[in-house]
Structures are given as C-alpha cells and as structure tokens.
Design goal:
The structure holds 2 protein chains of 2 kinds. By secondary structure, chain A is mainly β. Chain A has no helices and 11 strands. In chain A, the strands form 2 sheets. In chain A, strands 2, 4, 5, 9, 10 and 11 form a 6-stranded mixed sheet that branches. In chain A, strand 7 and strand 8 form a beta hairpin. In chain B, strands 2, 4, 5, 6, 9, 10 and 11 form a 7-stranded mixed sheet that branches. Chain B has a 4-stranded antiparallel sheet with strand order 1-3-8-7, with no helix packed on it. Chain B is built from no helices and 11 strands. In chain B, strand 5 and strand 6 form a beta hairpin. The chains are: A mainly beta, B mainly beta.
Chain lengths: ~110, ~110
Amino acid sequence: QKEVEQNSGPLSVPEGAIASLNCTYSDRGSQSFFWYRQYSGKSPELIMFIYSNGDKEDGRFTAQLNKASQYVSLLIRDSQPSDSATYLCAAGNAGGTSYGKLTFGQGTILTVHP
Amino acid sequence: DAGVIQSPRHEVTEMGQEVTLRCKPISGHDYLFWYRQTMMRGLELLIYFNNNVPIDDSGMPEDRFSAKMPNASFSTLKIQPSEPRDSAVYFCASSPSGAKNIQYFGAGTRLSVL
C-alpha cells in the first residue's frame, strides 16, 4: 500500500509564529509533492507544489523536500488566524501506470490563535 | 475559467434510492478524478479517467458504485442502491496532461443517505 502520512495534530500556534507541517511517503517512485489547504466545509485548494530536493518559497510558505528521507514539509511564517485550516499533503507518480494519480495524507488541522 | 463544476451541492436521499452526482471538468483538462471524503477515512480516490477512459477504479468501494465519462466535459458518479454509510462529501477534480499531477477540485457534493 503506497501511503502518505502526516503528523495528525491538531497543531496550535500563536499568531505570528512559524507553523511546521510534516509528511512522509512510502513510494520511492513519487516524484511530485503537493500541499493543499482545506477550510472547513470547502474543497481542497492547492497552495504549494515541489518536485526537486531542497526548499521552495512562495510568500509566507516554504515547502521542503528530502527524497532520500522521503520527507516533505510545509513551513508557514508569520502565521495568521486565516491560515487555520486542514493541510493535506499529497504525492504523485509522474510516470508509469500511476501517472496523474495523487495519494493524499489524512491531513493536519492547524489552528492559529490570536 | 469557471473551474470544476459539480452538481448538486447537497443531496439528501433515503436508503435504497439511486443517487447521481455530476461533474464538469475544466476545459482542456485530460484527467478527471472522483474522490470521497469522510472524517474517518480522509480523502479517498474512487476512480479516475484519462481522455474519457477509466484508468483506475480500484478505489470504488463496491458494485453499487459506477462512474462514466461520456465526453470530455461531463462525468457522473452513480450509487445504486444508496446506503447510510455512503454519506460523505464527494469531490471531482481535473488535471491537465503534463502538469505534473496538479489537480483542481470542484466544490463537492455533500451526500446524506438517511
């Protein structure tokens, strides 16, 4: 079973702090990684994707990928109450019969308190 | 672009009834995915299509579930007969070919089977 696992949380951080969300994956064939944000009652919304080892920054968000350790993380700097949501980690296999398919983790609930 | 469009947004039905969920993917996207989300099981992939052809239906829970994609702009997910355990939010997502798996989600259909 190809799995994506996230720290279950919930994670609570004060406003202005850094929130760190972590994810591990079991399929070494995974080549693309995604972070989706899902507000309560809404659909998942893509916020970051990363394909190469290292860091990728977009505004207050930084995604980190370490393929050797099969580890993906998302850092949210200067956390705001509006960041409170469930964050879903997903892994995709860019080749073979699984092309196009994503495997999602269970999600981490983040609460940013004022 | 209007994004992925799902209908209905909410469906309440009685056990044993047939339920049909509908999805219109983003124009030009080659891939279409049906997911089910519950608190207990998270986001599960049910089936996905590439160029209107089903590629992987291993996530379809049982024969009561069926999905079709008669053309590039329309797909249905049917449950017949429905059972209370089918109550969940069903999401449709689409993805362009070559976009390294980036999927865009519809707003979802919240199904309640009484």
